[in-house]
Amino acid sequence: MNKIRCFVALTKGQVNRSLYANLSTSSVAQKRYIPRRAVLYVPGSDERKLKKIPSLSADCIVMDCEDGVALSKKTEARNLIRHVLDTGMIDFTGKDCSVRFNSVDSGLCEEDMQTVLSAKVLPSTVHLPKVESGDQLQWFNEKFTSALGNQEIGEKIRLIMFIESAQALINLPEICKKAVELSKTSRFDVDGLVFGSDDFCADIGATRTSSAEELLYARQYLVTVAKAFRLQAVDLVYIDYKDLEGLKVQSEEGCRMGFTGKQVIHPGQVTIVQKAYSPSEEKVAWANELVKAFEEHQKEGKGAFTFRGHMIDMPLLLQAKNIIEMVSKVKC
Ligand code: COA
Ligand code: MG
Fold first, then answer.
1. Which of 104, 140, 201, 229 is deepest in the core (most CB within 10 A)?
2. Whole-prediction pTM value?
3. How far from 29 is each of 72, 133, 191, 304, CA to CA, in Å?
4. Pick from 277, 304, 323: which residue ends a domain?
5. What pLDDT digit, counting tens, does each position of 140-197 carry?
6. Taken in order 18, 35, 246, 43, is the CA torsion positive or negative?
7. Which residues sit with their C-beta closer than 6 Å to ligand 1?
8. Which atom of ligand 1 is nearest to the CA of 41?
9. Domain count of the chain?
């Protein structure tokens, strides 16, 4: 039986995986692009919050089995998520529907996968926390494959990995390489990295500050490695969820650094984050005009040309096209 899947309501046009900062090249296999500007956690054990999902405008909704759920509620959370998926009681139209499992080392991950991945409706994405090594991914792949059994799933389920310790950061290229390699034959397809800042701070003994200066190196490194493997990069949570000005500053900073989105914990954070991770009206106008000018020059058989005083070459054209694609695929 073909499984129904929760997908973002996008057209089928194939675009580059990451936002406009990540340029597509002909050598990179392209796949359906799923925007994840705001990645919102909804505790899997909290039915009241789960029922709010249709009214939430975050690009990506993560029904959480992990740290947003008390240890005593783990079974309840995974069963409730399964119920949500089986009954279709929640409409995910226009959103990336994801589930965050518990980590490989937690002893809970296999049961999470068995419960969630045998549901009538499968999530379009899964989040795997606290990834530390390629060996863990090998284990994850085996259990993931076994939990899916021989169901037909259509498009592969996207995998997002959390990096939240010193060991994980050191092993990051190896982890990404392994995930990309496994994606070639597995029924998951790695799509992004998330920076788990609070666990990372605890691991390295850093103290969180509002400027997050103690995390600068880790954030820059994570973005760099993510982009080297053509993955999305999702920035840290701004935990002081009532401070919207601070959230705006940090979201704009993350976007400038190359992140493609940000984790959020409260519905009140979504609009600010999605705005920060969307190109400005001026940038969109620039992109549209540039593409038009390019096409006109192509017709006349001209290659490089000058636009608004700048020489335009292929990377700038691709950047402009990515902006146009991205804007066409997000709601607000
Ligand atoms: N998902 C869906 N709805 C949410 C939500 C979330 N993450 N956070 C808050 N809401 C809802 C609340 O239920 C409330 O609606 P209600 O009044 O009809 O019940 C409304 O939004 C306003 O919420 P508010 O009263 O301001 O906050 P709260 O005290 O209910 O919840 C938190 C605050 C931080 C506990 C909550 O936002 C939360 O659980 N966030 C996720 C935390 C998490 O997953 N952490 C792990 C990942 S880092
Ligand atoms: Mg964490």
1. 140
2. 0.88
3. 43, 25, 12, 26
4. 277
5. 999 999 999 999 898 999 999 999 999 999 999 999 999 999 999 999 999 999 999 9
6. negative
7. 41-43, 48-49, 52, 64, 67-68, 237, 265-267
8. 44
9. 2
